[in-house]
TrEMBL record:
Organism domain of life: Eukaryota
GO molecular function: calcium ion binding
TM spans (from-to): none
PROSITE patterns given in the database record: EF_HAND_2
EF-hand domain sequence ranges: 18-53
Species assigned in the record: Phytophthora citrophthora
Protein name: Calmodulin-2
Amino acid sequence: MATGGYDIDYAALGLTEERFEAFKSVFSTLDKAHTGAITTKQLETLCYKLGEDFDEEELSVATASLVDPQTGLIHFTTFLPWWISE
């Protein structure tokens, strides 16, 4: 069950297609280039839009866990499994 630039098996994460699409929609509002990735500065906004207000320490830990060291970006395919497991 993969989909487009957000290639992830949402069923393996225990998500319905509707819930996956809801996460993808929120992420996409920040992914202006439609690459499936956001900047580290956008992580706080993303978390807030998903209902969590992280403090600076929580954001720092999350960023360290999520950022791609090669691109410096946070990819949807990394973010979603992390978010579901938190």
